[in-house]
Design a protein that fits this description.
single chain; about 425 residues; Rossmann fold; 3 domains; 13 helices; about 45% helix
């Protein structure tokens, strides 16, 4: 018998109606767990809202620092990008939220875990793989896979019938997920891939055409692959990301419109805003290009999409991720330095980079006279480097000559026979 249910709670439409549904269906205590990973004012009054909708208690956990340091930074350092564009903002947050949910469930003696993820999305997998890692003994309640509600319009009607206040309306019915890294937008007109996102959809970024008419430069500093400063000022993880979100958002940087492949097998369309994250990915990649050798870069580029798949699919709590992190950590030991970007009308262009560990050395690449590089050495290198091509060319030439001789021999045979006759 289920007496206490621990619900991952956001205060949005889905989880707001789940509280009374759980109370009606199970006649159990409902304990809400709301995780602050940088949603801003979305969590204002969330505890009072949960209690008003029937929850017996609501824990509001500030996980912002841990989210950035333990989830965002490792994913950034790995260079993970899903579907060629997506910087994994929602994907990274779920394993942390679900793990904290389990921890509180243990504290309150919960008999079951619940979440508000739909049966069509990725988040159900992310939450439940975390549950499997930390609470394999607890049953899982996923209302969207059980109840009669089939659409967000149905959900709004359910909320209205029980006088539960929600922000979603029938006119603006977008499904959004926001944290300190990004905000995602889905649903409504966005379900038509040919339709442009409405101008009033965006919340973190200025429309590029309305961005300042003067470019702005920003310098990001890194220590062992981890961002530590903006324009020379050292900041903690949260403050650094907030600062870059403000700067990037002001210039319309970080918007993507993506038709992605969900884990469950269907394609969906999402519009994402990741202003600070976009600046960080550009700068981090450029710094790696300066300090890592060609073979290490190639190996890391092989790991990056696999890391992205792992994060997207909710497989965070695995040996695979730990192994990737171990590899990435070694590659980042010399990724220390700074990169300067120029921001203008939605673009972020690299204009400078420096590091004490740079493998770029002007003594080697200058077109002027130098005492380090003997240009005559290139002749021997090229001869060896092209040896296989030379061997093949020689062999082809010999075979062609042999075929030619063979043809000439056959042509002489009839003439010789005729002369003998």
């Amino acid at each position: 018998m289920i007496r206490t249910i621990a619900l991952a709670y956001s205060g949005g439409l889905d989880t707001s109606i789940i509280v009374p549904w759980l109370k009606e269906r199970y006649d159990a205590r409902v304990i809400c767990i709301a995780a602050d990973i940088g949603q801003g004012n979305e969590l204002e009054g969330v505890r009072a809202k949960a209690i008003a909708s029937g929850a017996d208690e609501c824990y509001v956990e500030d996980l912002r620092q841990e989210f950035v340091e333990k989830f965002v930074w490792p994913t950034l350092r790995a260079g993970a990008v899903y579907g060629r564009k997506y910087l994994l903002g929602t994907s990274m947050g779920r394993p942390l939220i679900a793990r904290r949910q389990v921890e509180i469930a243990r504290q309150v003696g919960a008999d079951a875990l619940a979440h508000g993820c739909t049966g069509k999305g990725n988040d159900q997998v992310r939450f439940e793989l975390t549950y499997a890692a930390f609470a394999p003994d607890l049953p899982i309640i996923a209302p969207w896979r059980e109840w009669d509600i089939r659409s967000r319009e149905d959900a709004i009607a359910y909320a209205e019938s029980r006088k539960i206040p929600v922000a979603a309306t029938r006119d603006k019915i977008y499904s959004r997920d926001r944290n300190i890294w990004h905000i995602s937008h889905e649903g409504g007109i966005l379900e038509q891939p040919a339709a442009a996102p409405p101008a009033d959809l965006f919340m973190l970024t200025t429309a590029p055409e309305n961005a300042p008419n003067e470019p702005e430069e920003v310098t990001i500093g890194f220590l062992n692959g981890t961002p530590i400063s903006v324009n020379g000022a050292e900041l903690d993880a949260v403050d650094l990301l907030v600062a870059l979100n403000t700067i990037g958002g002001r210039h319309g940087v970080g918007r993507i419109d993506l038709v992605e492949d969900r884990l469950v097998g269907m394609k969906s369309r999402g519009v994402y805003e990741t202003p600070g994250g976009t600046l960080l990915y550009s700068a981090h990649s450029e710094l790696e290009q300066l300090v890592l050798d060609r073979r290490t870069l190639a190996a890391k580029d092989n790991i990056a999409p696999r890391y992205a798949d792992l994060v997207y699919e909710g497989r965070w709590w695995t040996t695979e991720r730990e192994a990737y992190d171990a590899f990435v950590n070694v590659t980042q030991e010399r990724v220390t330095g700074s990169v300067t970007l120029k921001l203008f009308k939605g673009s972020a262009s690299v204009i400078g980079r420096e590091s004490d560990y740079a493998l770029y050395d002007e003594r080697f690449v200058t077109f002027g006279e130098d005492d380090v590089y003997e240009q005559s050495d290139a002749a021997g290198f090229i001869r060896l480097y092209g040896l296989s091509a030379r061997v093949r060319a020689i062999r082809d030439r010999e075979m062609a000559a042999a075929e030619k001789r063979k043809g000439e021999t056959k042509a002489k045979e009839p003439a010789a026979a005729l002369a003998m006759a």
